[in-house]
Prior knowledge:
Elements: E1 4-8, H1 14-24, E2 28-31, H2 32-41, H3 45-56, H4 62-75, E3 82-85, H5 91-103, E4 110-115, H6 118-132, H7 140-154, H8 156-163, E5 167-171, H9 176-194
Parallel strand pairs: 1-3, 1-4, 2-3, 4-5
Helix pairs in contact: 2-3, 4-5, 6-7
Bound molecules: adenosine-5'-diphosphate (ADP).
Amino acid sequence: MFNIVIFGKPGSGKGTQADFLKDKYDLYHISTGDLFRKNILNKTNLGIEAKSFLDNGDLVPDIVTIKMLENEVTENKGVKGFIFDGFPRTSYQAEKLDALLTKYSLNIHLTIALDVDNETLIERLLNRGKSSGRADDQSEDKINKRLREYDKKTKPLIEFYTKQNKYKSINGIGEMDDITARIVNLLDNYLNDRG
Ligand code: ADP
């Protein structure tokens, strides 16, 4: 198995890159943001519970998020590997993810972070908001809140994965294809070394 986390601030391009990587490396893509939005659209109980958090730019409570993630992994554990996009986002989620994977004799191999400055992110997200219809992309206040949530709750994961020697970051600014090439280079080197 080959399991990776794609990591970065809101708007850093995690989803776009994960979409490409899942095909190239035959990975099962789990995007917690997409799962929440699907549930909101279908008005499931989970969607009803999560909606206000997403709309306001807050993180959904760990207990809800972790349960959804655990279901998704358990239902798909026969795949060649997972690409986690938007999860983990808190230290508690990271610990729970390790515990879950360990239960199935699996682990995270690499965490790839896309580095992008806040100014570029705000511009990208406001732009995305014009067509995505996402409430959380349409106001600079909400975008700033998400960036603050990241600093407070998600940034500590850099240390978590660095300690495990799994954290790699790449420059997330530039042409989309160039950014993809940077990630592919990193992953291919890892896979070659692993043999
Ligand atoms: P972005 O990276 O642009 O914020 P996502 O689709 O990854 O977009 O996430 C959108 C929203 O979904 C988040 O602001 C949050 O409300 C919720 N969400 C996604 N993943 C998580 C998570 N791991 N924990 C808590 N909330 C999450």
